[in-house]
Automatic annotation (TrEMBL), chains A, B, C:
Transmembrane segments: 12-33, 67-87, 94-114, 126-145, 152-174, 180-201, 213-233, 253-273, 285-302, 308-325
Gene: RHBG
Principal subcellular localisation of the protein: membrane
Domain Ammonium transporter AmtB-like, residue spans: 49-364
Entries under Gene3D superfamilies matching the protein: Ammonium transporter AmtB like domains
GO MF annotation list: ammonium channel activity
Cited Pfam families: Ammonium_transp (PF00909)
Protein name: Ammonium transporter AmtB-like domain-containing protein
Region (Disordered): 413-434
GO biological process: ammonium homeostasis
Bilayer disposition of the protein: Multi-pass membrane protein
Subcellular location: Cell membrane
Length: 434, 434, 434
């Protein structure tokens, strides 16, 4: 206890204040408003014929706020189901999220490309920073109760940095498309957290296992977290997809996937329960796996039918994971996955990557029409943002899809693409290609 | 206990999985993306001059998310005020809502019209499915604590089906306008639930009445539900009204109705309380009656003044119902209305229908201008969606209003209507008439 | 107890019902739909070429709902950290907020200008009414546990009236710009509340001090309030700023200020804690000070760097205030500030006013471009709404900035202003100047 008191009294203030001062200095030297938040630049756009109502704020901010609620309320309260760590969960979640979103702005800015030596910030960088924060909070779920706040801050510094590099590799080098982050957010966050949990393995933690039990009110608080994550997952997956049908379709696919996943979770949970009662941990976690599993394919023409199959599978995999895999992870691999992130984010994330690859491989102009261009377009020279085609080297068929896309988007081509160009203002075209 | 365990162990998994498999098969054969979610169709619209920013997603999705929060957080936590059923409330609410929204998509699709044998889905079908789900959850409030999850799923299957048929009769056959669902959602849900409660009447439930008492923390959880319902009711009532002034006005009328209703509730609750203390059940429920009672008339030119009178009356009726009518219902009619849905949804819903009929009867072109067309337009040949005129056969005066509307909308007419046509793109006109 | 029972039984019903009847009568005689909520007037705009999608509803309603959540959930649950007053906090918060928003509509309408003897209402009046309500709830925090609901209603009547007058003086007479209300909402609310707390000083309240202690579940409920306030503060500060870059920039500046403030709060809280533990009261309150302190300057070109410095300072000042100033206030000035509103709203509000004045003084056309016009424009003859330049008489340098603004906006001038005029439709220009 004395140790922990010293830790908080000295190390936590030093960590918080030094990190914040470093961030402020870096923001002062490196960060600038982007075209849509800078008064002068935006009013140049206005002078060139844009309307204030074209500002991206109006098309992204409601999604951003939903994502924000998932990060701070959803993740924060989800983990309160462990009575012993209820307050740590919410309190530390708040601290590391507030830190990680600042650090993520810098790291994602560095890696994803600077503009004349400056990082440009606006609503999309805010959403991406929250996404990266989400990944850190997933890892937090794997180590909850085993770490001090200072260790969590150190973990955040490292994880955010690696997240940005991994995101760059997946989206830019491999050219994969992963708007809802099945791969970049969930799979990365889960396996990073499990790795840390392995390092922090303490055999005698077993003895305090009863502390992991949940109680009545803790379960109700946890349901606040669960339900907010569940409700706003459509916003999460669609937050940075292309405007128009993409955003609309992604939200709807996620909605159906989650609904099917919930039915699968309730059904399976009752089957595997030893006393025939629903296991609250399953409901609080596995019902969300449907959102994870359509993170990659959700913006494609997956159809409600396809989304429901994916959600149903994700819920099944997740409940079975909680029941059969988690004990094995702990006993054989010495990984104490406190909140079961392997079952909620790990396996469903891998499932999501596979579904995304398959769905992308099946993409044809017959199904997508001109939408294929916008959805799968890769601009090799520009800095990538989420919204690119799946180009996993393992999947040969993929490359055909790529060829189709590139062919379709070659500038100066004939056909429907030209029609498209004529009706778009330069500004709109720029946004589509952003 | 053994019985209940068997129920969960066998019946619940079977029910969940069979129902979900049926739904998935029906979605696979019958459900398609609509024009705004299908990549190919939307990009045809883009090629025809639409902008991505015209996608209905941007005008409906924030409302949808508010409605979603009402369904899953609002209804879920509202019912936690009964300590004994706190977790059932949230947990079963989650299950039946996730099921009902899928089933509602199919049933509403069947009844409200197919497109070449297919049900088209998009943001409006999502909102309508959530509305139907709300009706099921109202009924759930009447039978809370008396049903197993399997019984609730069976009830949902039946109620959603009847809801869709009733909605078709009210909106399409009778041609009534009921955007906020005073009639179709609240009145229907309440009386359906009361009917089921009557069937499930168990005289010895009286003995366990003390379990119905609320406690400190349960009351705080219930207030989460109440306040979310209260705050987002303006979004609920305006979610599927016509774009523009209709949506704006509906939200505002609901806001004022609820504020006035809350003052009436606090005032009346203190009057009727036996010990001079505010009754938490009144505050958690009756304060919401103002939202129910402007569900039909809210989109009309009810004025803030009119909305407040309606809200004040609704709060009064609801508190008096809790105090004097509920005991009578239980003793004389053998209806144990666990959450008092008759007081929150039943009577205020009927009040709302009456207010809607009167307000519609008073509608004149002098007050609405060209807005009369959009608000009260009925297209008899096309598939109806909420947003139609009240045509209750009982109200003769009504028909005059209808004649005015139809007259005003006759194609090829002179005057302001023609001016309107000239400034609208075909796409906008289509949306207005949708 | 008998006394309190009588109070509730007689005085509360009388107060609620008489106040509501007065409000309804005043609404009936004085309040009208504005151009965007009135069916006839809006359809005139449509006939003149506007689109339904131009309705201000779509650009303000999501922000309004976020503000609404802050008022009813944020303030309501924030104060539950005092276990003794948990339910009072939420229940009375609900009552006085529902009353204050109606009264504020009238008072702000009177003071800020009538249109032909009528108060016009729409989404902006709704946001402004919620803002005024926020100020009342801040004062409520200072007197929590010392007042009956009837006293709170009386306080609301007086405070709302004075708020409207003060707002008129600050925004219209002094011409200050204060979109997020550092001055008009937070500083006013805090010092009004402290004044009332001084009047209500009861020396023997000390003896029941242990009732002020917080407990486990209360802390979790309070975190719901804190986190909702924290998340939606960007919406609060940007809700009534000008459309386009202003709204976008304000939200982003607030986001960064709050993140930096949170790190400062955790750091400082651990330093000043007597046992090396984080003080939950600090985290629940001081972490929010960053939102208060950028309420005035947030819409200016403060930069993320500047916002973070302001947030860091606000968090520091707030934690130190809780630790060192609150005991002094109670002992020396006999002010029992129950929730510490002086530390959360008082001092950070004053800091925000200073930051706003300095930032406005540094505003140049070089930084803002044509945006300077829109941001700092003052129309002396028209009714002011938030969104005007800081013109505190104390700051001489300010007047230069004013001259620049006025110079830039003179009608019929040469240069970029003319370019601007040519691309704007009359409707857009009107909105910009609104």
């Amino acid at each position: 206890m004395t140790n922990s008191a010293t830790n908080l009294r000295l190390k936590l203030p030093i960590a918080c204040i030094i990190l914040e001062v470093i961030i402020i200095i870096l923001f002062g030297t490196l960060v600038q408003y982007d075209d849509e938040t800078d008064a002068k630049l935006w009013h140049k756009e206005i002078a060139n014929g844009s309307s204030n109502y074209d500002n991206n704020f109006y098309y992204r901010y409601p999604s951003f706020q939903d994502v924000h609620v998932m990060i701070f309320i959803g993740f924060g309260f989800l983990m309160t189901f462990l009575q012993r760590y209820g307050f740590s969960s919410v309190g530390f979640n708040f601290l590391i999220a507030a830190f990680a979103l600042q650090w993520a702005t810098l790291m994602q800015g560095f890696v994803h490309g600077m503009h004349g030596g400056k990082i440009h910030v606006g609503i999309e960088s805010m959403i991406n920073a929250d996404f990266c924060t989400g990944s850190v909070l997933i890892s937090f779920g794997a180590v909850l109760g085993k770490t001090s706040p200072v260790q969590l801050l150190v973990m955040s510094v490292i994880e955010v940095t690696l997240f940005a590099i991994n995101e760059f590799i997946v989206l830019s080098v491999l050219g994969a498309k992963d708007a809802g982050g099945s791969m970049t957010i969930h799979t990365f966050g889960a396996y990073f957290g499990l790795m840390v949990a392995r390092v922090l393995y303490r055999p005698n933690l077993d003895k305090s296992k009863h502390k992991n039990c949940s109680v009545y009110h803790s379960d109700l608080f946890a349901m606040i977290g669960t339900i907010y994550l569940w409700m706003f997952w459509p916003s999460f997956n669609s937050a940075v997809t292309a405007h128009g049908d993409d955003q609309h379709r992604t939200a709807m696919n996620t909605y159906y996937s989650l609904a099917a996943c919930t039915l699968a979770t309730y059904g399976l949970s009752a089957v595997v329960a030893h006393d025939g009662k629903l296991d609250m941990v399953h409901i609080q976690n596995a019902a969300l796996a449907g959102g994870v599993a359509v993170g990659t394919a959700g913006e494609m023409m997956l159809t409600p039918f396809g989304s429901m199959i994916v959600g149903f599978l994700a819920g099944t995999v997740s409940v079975l994971g909680f029941k059969f895999l988690s004990p094995i992870l702990e006993q054989k691999l010495k990984i104490q996955d406190t909140c079961g992130v392997h079952n909620l984010h790990g396996m469903p994330g891998v499932l999501g990557a596979i579904v995304g690859a398959v769905t992308a491989a099946l993409a044809t102009k017959d199904v997508y029409g001109d939408g294929l261009v916008c959805l799968f377009l890769t601009s090799w020279e520009s800095v990538p943002s989420p919204g690119f085609m799946v180009k996993l080297p393992l999947l040969r068929k993929q490359t055909d899809a790529i060829k189709v896309c590139i062919h379709t988007t070659l500038p100066g081509e004939e056909g429907s693409q030209e029609e498209l160009t004529t009706v778009r203002t330069p500004d709109e075209a720029e946004k589509l290609n952003a």
